[in-house]
Amino acid sequence: MVSLTVNGQAHEIDASPDTPLLYVLRDELGLHGAKYGCGLGQCGACTVMVGGEAVLSCVVPLVALEGKAVTTVEGLGTIEAPGPMQAAFIEEQAAQCGYCIPGMMMRAQALLQREPAASEAAIKAHMAPNLCRCGTHMRILAAIKRAGAAMRTAATTGSRAG
């Protein structure tokens, strides 16, 4: 058994210690935001946050996560009340096929939690591991900038910033 917290909820996972986190999220916990893309940690479709850092869940074994906090795209908000990152991606219409978008949001969230006023160059460098075949990169970049602005505003007004 491995203990971990996913989106604020504690779980005891009874799976092989070498099971990739992605499989646990999707198959055991029913969280389907993180996607299986390459299975090799090369595309970013499976990106989630562990302890505030972006990680590729297809290559992280369950045993490495004992007692750690995992956040998936489902933990950023809801359909009724999307978080700033989700709202920005919706407002900028950043998705075309949408397959890469949860991973993009999670990698961007990790950056903006550390550096809400990240420069465009910093955003581009940070997002490089995540691939989008549809070519919505400019809308994704605009969404990340919008989310950063919303997070900064929320921080100064004391409202929830995701």
TrEMBL record:
InterPro entries: 2Fe-2S-bd, 2Fe-2S-bd_dom_sf, 2Fe-2S_ferredoxin-like_sf, 2Fe-2S_ferredoxin-type, 2Fe2S_fd_BS, Beta-grasp_dom_sf, Diverse_Oxidoreductases. It comes from Aureimonas glaciei. This is (2Fe-2S)-binding protein. One of its GO terms (molecular function) is metal ion binding. Keywords: 2Fe-2S, Iron, Iron-sulfur, Metal-binding, Oxidoreductase. Residues 1-76 form the 2Fe-2S ferredoxin-type domain. CDD domains: fer2 (cd00207).
